[in-house]
Amino acid sequence: MDNCLITCKRLLGSLRVPHTQQFLKEKILTHPQYPSLLSLSDTLEEYRVESLAAKLGPGRLDELPLPGIVQVSLADGTYFNVITAVSESGITLFDEKGRLKDMPRLDFLKSWTGVCLLVEAGEDAAEPEINQKIRDQRVIKGVAMVCAVSLLLWLGFGIVENGTSGLYLFYFMLKLLGLSISGILLWYQQDKENPTLQKFCSGGKSVDCNSVLDSKTFHLLDGRINPSLLALAYFFAGTGLLGGSAFSAITLLAWLSLATIPVVIYSFYYQAMVIKKWCRFCLLIQGVLVLEVLAVLGGGFLVSGVDVIVVSSLLLLFTGVILGGILIKPMLGLQDKVYKTKRELSKLKSNKAMFELSLSRSKKIQDEPQGLGILLKGKNPKYKVIKVCNPYCGPCSSIHPVLESLFEKGNIDLQILFTPGNGDEQKEKTVRHLLAIESKGNSKLTRQALDDWYGAEKKDYQEFAAKYPMNGELTLQEEKIKLMEDWCKKENISFTPTLFVNGCELPEDYTVDYLKYLLD
């Protein structure tokens, strides 16, 4: 797993900030400045985790708020670690591969560059829309569980209906066990930095699954067929035949079990004598294969003949899994290519010179909207951003946090205008109320009201009005609303949100997210 990705993941885990792998990976790998400390800082901002980059001397290590991100210089390059505990003698951290380890303080100081990222999670720190994502994941897991249980029941009933011996059931259970282990092994080969699987696959100098699994000795067709895929195909075909054909398939499967003896012996020899490393998953599968042989020899499964239909079914199941694996494997890496393409595009679009050129060619404001809408003055504004929106527009709500974050940094003035209500009484009431709040001259109150309105999952005007009660201010907003409506018609505002930067409409090729990198 990528160092920036695993570092951010470990930090969010240490801070107990709810997150999903997919969202985190996309934000990290598509950042225009990836890999860098800035990519980590901007990603953490998405989770409402504040951060500050700093460079500290060795004597200030104890002052570092924990957990925090530190940069270390190793023989093969610079990496980020997540430091979780500091004592007089040692340091506890997640290293560049995400592994939790303790190391002597002096050894850490030798590799630490002094660069760090100080972080603080807010009370509401979480991934955007995390609750909905968690619900979706639970539904998917529930459906997968129902499918798995249904499959097992179907296989089990198929065996029971045909009448079986104890050894036959034992043989069937071995097939299921082998299928499970090979499935996990295949998962590990696609996600080698998974902490749970990695912990199982490491344990001393003699245990290293990667050394065995990545060996070219066990790979065919330039790595497209590997041990985990072969094991999955073998056990899947065996399980399917036993569940569907019962006794008619047992003889063929028994001979295949005996045929695996040379594979078991060679695999054991290769791990023990050639590379002198052990793969625990491989040993488990070897153990299952040995038990299969014992079950075959003890159960008398070799007495019947072999049915041609059973052979055809076996070949169909086995080759189906192999071909499926060969076809699917390239797709698993396709997402990373998409992220890379997005990152390159982000780099291009975060080029200020190109942005200024595109901006200069876009539509210009004909009449500056002086005194209209809501104006929030930045501390040291370099740019003026005008947002023309609808209080009930979904995209308008989604871009509000980005604009609020830009304003918080102090380098923009933010002016918010509203499109005509066109007879929509509810919309007009909301606009009137927001303008009334702004008329009080309290910028903090105005920003809080905007955050509450645009951040609400359900737009409820009555609830909003009760939270921000107004008196006569509401009746004083009619002229302001009329002037805004006239301005929108004059400027031909046809959709919301419409954004202007320094009087020029944001080009279609740019989204509001790019402004984070351009308006600094």
From TrEMBL:
Membrane-spanning parts: 139-160, 166-188, 225-243, 249-269, 281-302, 308-328
A molecular-function term among this protein's GO annotations: quinone binding
Gene3D superfamilies: Cysteine proteinases, Glutaredoxin, VKOR domain
Domain Peptidase C39: 1-119
Record bears the keyword Disulfide bond: yes
Domain of life: Bacteria
GO cellular component term, pick one: membrane
Keywords for the protein's UniProt record, in alphabetical order: Disulfide bond, Membrane, Oxidoreductase, Quinone, Redox-active center, Transmembrane, Transmembrane helix
Protein's name in the database: Peptidase C39-like protein
Lineage: Bacteria, Pseudomonadati, Bacteroidota, Cytophagia, Cytophagales
